[in-house]
Structure formats: structure tokens, C-alpha cells
């Protein structure tokens, strides 16, 4: 999470379970430091309880990595596109992607 604090990214993808860390704690830390950063949670533990906890902590999306990696690629591509440059060289940022999923509803 030190890298996130230094770089201030537009998008962070976190796993709920990380070696030596907790994705939920990472999510809360990112949202405290950078409330405008889009945070997508990726997990093999896509239970309703995990989803509710992540959404309550500020996650912008919750994806099951065993079934929704294609959705992750789509959301990341959309976020990158939202921060592209127009023909005059101005940023064209818009709202972050909505990331609800059929499995996590």
C-alpha cells in the first residue's frame, strides 16, 4: 500500500486476501487517503458477506476472480478510457465505472 500512497492512482485493484496483508484494510486506507480513487475488489471468496463488507468500506466494485476476470478487464479499460486526452490535449475524466455484478447481487 506504500506504492498507492506515493503514486495516487486513479484505480486500485485489491484482493481480499493478500500475502502479509488484508485487502479490506487496504481498501479502507486507500479510501481515507484518496477518496476519489476507484477501488475494485477481486476475490475467490465472493460471498454476500464479503461483498457487503467491501461495499460498506467504499469499494467501487466487487468481482469474483474465478468467474469475472473478463469484467475486470472491461472495467479497467473503461477507467483508462475515462482518463484519456481529447484532441486539444485536455484530460477527459468522467465518473468512475459502476461495477456491480450478477454473481454478487
Description of the structure:
The chain is α/β, with parallel strands linked by helices. It is built from 4 helices and 5 strands. It has one domain (2-82): 3-Layer(aba) Sandwich (Rossmann fold), CATH 3.40.50.2300. It has helices at 2-7, 23-33, 48-56, 69-82; strands at residues 11-15, 17-18, 21-22, 38-43, 61-64. It is globular, with a radius of gyration of 14 Å.
Largest sheet: 3 strands, parallel
Instruction: Work out the oligomeric state of the chains in this entry.
Output: single chain
Extended strand count: 5
- Share of residues in strands: 15-25%
Q: What's the CATH class label?
A: Alpha Beta
In helices, the fraction of residues equals 25-40%
Provide the spatial order of strands within the biggest beta sheet: 1-4-5
CATH second-level architecture:
3-Layer(aba) Sandwich
SSE series: HEEEHEHEH
Cα-based radius of gyration, to the nearest Å: 14 Å
What is the fold named in CATH at topology level? Answer: Rossmann fold
Q: Separation of termini?
A: 28 Å
Low-confidence stretches: 100-105
Helical segment count: 4
CATH-assigned homologous superfamily = Response regulator
Q: How would you describe the shape? A: globular
Structural class based on helices, strands and sheet pairing: alpha/beta
